[in-house]
Amino acid sequence: MINTKPPAVSAGVIRRHRRLRATPAVRALVCETRVGLDDLVMPMFAIEGTGRREDIAAMPGIQRLTPDLLAAEAADLADRGLCAILLFGVPHAKDDLGSGAYADDGVVQQAVRAVKGAAPDLVVITDVCLCAYTTHGHCGVVRDGRILNDETVALLARTAVSHARAGADMIAPSDMMDGRVAAIRAALDADGFTETPIMAYAAKLASAFYGPFREAAHSAPATGDRKSHQLNPANAREALAEAMTDLDEGADIVMVKPAMPCLDLIARLRTRTDAPIAAYQVSGEYAMLKAAAANGWLDEPQTVRESLTSIKRAGADIIITYYAAQIARGTI
Ligand code: PBG
């Protein structure tokens, strides 16, 4: 027989943490981190035309939508309590200078107008980058095999202003060029958009977890990679320096991306700034969860909730996630 009688001394000595885990109600009382629908941002992909939707193979449940369908979907999500979307354009035509990014009637500009018409209170955030708009798939102007910083920044500022003119509520530069936040702030202010916030992709790693997105946005670089501007995943101090620079340049919100591989960066940035921190649970993170769930290897609702809770617990105020729509609809 095993003796299960506790030793006499333990009662007064051991710390009984389990007291506060005894029932669901007690656990709820001491819960430290809650993720609400109003913490989430839904990324959406706009294509040209009307009445068309396209599946994205590596991102089950996510589609590219024409502005009319995208606006209807956004309005439905807003009705269900979603506060914000992040818009990406997938243009038909591309050129060397990514001119579709800053065209008045570009695909994002059309989508912004449609969404603002259908759901005026939804916060429409626009991604500012050139990679989906350039034939070579790089995030900027390329000459002699190099991405030119300042020439690119000028086009990004132009893009930001054209998004604001179309009605965008917030601008999210994702290019990782130096000085873009300052240039975008100055360009927005000069055009009268002093009240339009900037959410800077501040600590954005050169991550393999963006793979499915590049299929979704047709934005993979034709040659080379993004390592001359995105951060080495090995470098935390450099990531923090990038984020602090973006804040110095006038960013209102700083983003860490990807999210789960960067929980340490979120936590460290949290101690450096009181500005809101956003974290982007990127396409590869979504694809991993979806694939494991489809195979019956993970419980999808529970793992999704745990992943979002971990990101918030690390210090993020805002989470950009492809699960936002499913959470808003209660289908997960
Ligand atoms: C554009 C951009 C990318 C993502 C957001 N904006 C791709 C990249 O940098 O190659 C990735 C988002 C995701 O993977 O979900 N520069």
Keywords for this structure?
single chain; about 325 residues; alpha/beta; TIM Barrel; ten-stranded mixed beta sheet; two-stranded antiparallel sheet; 12 helices; about 40% helix; binds ligand PBG
Describe the structure.
By secondary structure, the protein is α/β, with parallel strands linked by helices. It has one domain: Aldolase class I (TIM Barrel). Strands 1, 2, 3, 4, 5, 8, 9, 10, 11 and 12 form a 10-stranded mixed β-sheet that branches. It has a two-stranded antiparallel ribbon with strand order 6-7. Strand 2 and strand 3 form a beta hairpin. Helix 3 packs parallel to helix 4, helix 5 crosses helix 6 and helix 9 packs parallel to helix 11. The longest helix has 18 residues. It starts with 9 loop residues before the first helix and ends with a helix. The protein binds ligand PBG. Ligand PBG binds next to helix 7.
CATH class: Alpha Beta
Give the H and E element order.
HHEEEHEHEEEHEHEHHEHEHHEH
Nearest-integer average pLDDT: 96
SSE class: alpha/beta
Gross CATH architecture: Alpha-Beta Barrel
Number of helix segments? 12
Distance between the terminal alpha carbons, to the nearest Å?
47 Å
Radius of gyration using CA atoms only: 22 Å
Shape: globular
How many strands appear in the DSSP assignment?
A: 12
Number of domains: 1
Biggest pleated sheet: 10 strands, mixed
